[in-house]
């Protein structure tokens, strides 16, 4: 397995040092991308507990956290609420447009935004933000478009690992 901070170059470190907002996709990042439906039509997803745990640490270090996802799912809305995301938007087809609307109200520039995504719908936002990342199991064309590829897969702590990289770059990576 690659080192936890493998690929954290001086350039990425410098970009991460100025991040004020971390935004994530959900399916394929916070989950492994699988969706389970039971016979009653109930939807189930599996989230990694460590991805959730880091949200409060980011917020304690004045980094806002949000989600913009293409699917509209009650399970995801509930998870974002439980984790106290600063915002979360669901069923969004144009994520870059939605991000620009959000940034207007937050008075944060694109250079101060980090985004982690894993698929085609994420490309327009991945190519605009100050720091972009994807899980290691994202398609090759996504990996080629981002600043950083996490050594972890979606749903296996990739969001946490990317957040830890940002906290480390800002001198806030600590256990407490």
Largest sheet, order of strands side by side? Answer: 5-4-1-6-7-8
Reading off the top of the CATH hierarchy, the class is best stated as: Alpha Beta
CATH architecture: 3-Layer(aba) Sandwich
Beta strands, count: 8
Helix percentage:
25-40%
Rg (C-alpha, Å): 15 Å
Count of separate structural domains: 1
Task: Find the CATH topology.
Answer: Rossmann fold
The 3D shape can be described as globular
Through-space gap between termini = 26 Å
Q: How would you spell out the order of helices and strands?
A: HEEEHEHEHEHEHEH
Number of helices: 7
Largest sheet: 6 strands, parallel
CATH superfamily: HAD superfamily/HAD-like
Low-confidence stretches: none
Give the percentage of residues in beta strands.
5-15%
What integer is the average pLDDT?
93
Structural class: alpha/beta
Keywords: Hydrolase, Lipopolysaccharide biosynthesis, Magnesium, Metal-binding
GO molecular function: 3-deoxy-manno-octulosonate-8-phosphatase activity; metal ion binding; N-acylneuraminate cytidylyltransferase activity
Pfam families: Hydrolase_3
Binding site for substrate: 27
Structure described in brief:
GO terms for molecular function: 3-deoxy-manno-octulosonate-8-phosphatase activity; metal ion binding; N-acylneuraminate cytidylyltransferase activity. The protein has 176 residues and is of the alpha/beta class.
